[in-house]
Amino acid sequence: MSEQARKFDLNMEEVLEAWGVADATREVIANALDEQALTDTGEVEIYEDDEGRWHIRDYGRGLRHEHLTQNEDEEKLNNPDKVIGKFGVGLKDALATFYRNGVDVTIHSKHETITVEKAPKADFEDIETLHGLIYPPEQDIEGTDVVLDGITEAQIDQAKSNFLRFTDDELLEETKFGEVYASPAGEDSRIYVTGLKVATEENFLFSYNITKTTKQVRDALNRERSNVGRTAYSSRVKDILRECETTDVAQRLVDDFENFTDGTTHDEVNWKPIRLHAVKLLNERDDVVFATVDERHSNADLLNHARADGYRVVTVPENIRNEIQDERDSEGNRLRDVGTYLEEYNESFEYDWVPEDEMTEDEREVWNHRDDILELLNDPPVEEIRVSETIRMTERGEMANGVWDGSEQRIVIRRQQLNSVRDFASTLLHEVAHPRSGGAPDLSKPFEDALTGLLGEVAESAISKQ
């Protein structure tokens, strides 16, 4: 550069020792992306030229030396959800880091060309600080072209990895507060703020991009804009999840808390509002039944029928089971736990009758003993006995072997009880005890008294026939 440069003191004696070349490059990329967002201009380009130099090129208004001042950028502060950067010192720190690491920087715009060197401060020859050398523009271009000589492709890739737009993360859902992404397999989840990675989470199920920031988030974005603490963004992550409306996110959350039995759940499912939201959304959009591990064993018959009816049985911890008992989804439907499904099943139940001519020969032989059994009793209060392939469920979620239908004054026997006279007789006598007790339920004292009385009648009849 033949012309005499004007020296612009950056007032920097020290640089951020923790920063490397990739960190400095991140700042340059962030500035370029911010300019693109603020001016709605063409895509930022990052490429290597024939001489091995890397270019970071935007098509905005062009960098001026005034942008190297210490002040915060008012335009960026007024658009917190549109840009990545916040502090005017970010670019200065980047230039200092490049200088310390032997990376030559040249910045081209239509306004001027800028390089950097160390030089004595004005009137203080014993103090050297980093200066920007300001030359007349060498190129008449739109935007800014930052040329880096001495940087590797690996350092460029490391810098780009801080930006959501340069990843292939799978977008699952977009909300008014931000976006949910599938976490990369085998990698930590990522937390982005307006597209810039600010933290990683080892035990999050998803990655998140916060697009509507809070004061807490903005205040936490320090000069380094990395390693932001969870307290700064956790409330916004919860807001994002609560706004999700697709079953994709809800399904993944529910699938995750099914892993509670082996202790491999992720942190999001430990947040009660998120658990409830996922369950409600899944209940609204899919055919599911929520059951605990114990309920899957104790209500096996009922849940087998649920699966046969097209429902998916979702295993939930006991605490979630308790949380959802009285809850409803956004459409006003009760959350379908085992008790709710049992009610729905019994309300919609229809018998699958087995006519005598469809019974097997062995079944008919057993069936023909029904009058013999009833004759052992004194005036049995039964008008009709029928056989059904299926039958209503008990409160324990088991298919009953028989039921007393008081409205029809009839006993219904489950077909499988025709396997033997003993099974058939025991079920028939059990059901007779219900009308004898005035319709009392199982295990009640009136029912037990009636059943005891029947046993006495049967014994008396058997003895008298000897």
Structure in a nutshell:
This protein has 466 residues and is α+β, with helices and mostly antiparallel strands. 36% of the residues lie in helices and 20% in strands.
Salient structural properties:
4 domains; rod-shaped; 5-stranded mixed β-sheet; alpha+beta; single chain
Chain-wise SSE layout:
Blueprint (H helix, E strand, L loop, with lengths): L5 E4 L11 H19 L5 E4 L5 E5 L15 H4 L11 H12 L3 E6 L3 E9 L2 E12 L8 E6 L3 H8 L10 E4 L3 E5 L6 E5 L2 E6 L4 E5 L4 H6 L9 H14 L3 H11 L14 H14 L2 E4 L1 H6 L1 H9 L3 E4 L2 H7 L13 H11 L12 H7 L2 H5 L9 E5 L13 E4 L4 E5 L6 H16 L8 H20 L2
Helix pairs in contact: 1-3, 1-4, 7-8, 15-16
Describe the protein's architecture and organization:
The chain has 466 residues and is α+β, with helices and mostly antiparallel strands. It has four domains: 6-160, no CATH class; 165-243, no CATH class; 247-348, no CATH class; 356-464, Metalloproteases ("zincins"), catalytic domain (Zincin-like). Helices cover 36% and strands 20% of the residues. It has helices at 21-39, 74-77, 89-100, 153-160, 215-220, 230-243, 247-257, 272-285, 293-298, 300-308, 318-324, 338-348, 361-367, 370-374, 421-436, 445-464, and strands at 6-9, 45-48, 54-58, 104-109, 113-121, 124-135, 144-149, 171-174, 178-182, 189-193, 196-201, 206-210, 288-291, 312-315, 384-388, 402-405, 410-414. Helix 1 crosses helix 4 and helix 15 packs across helix 16 (445-464). It is rod-shaped and about 130 Å long. The model has no long low-confidence stretch (mean pLDDT 87).
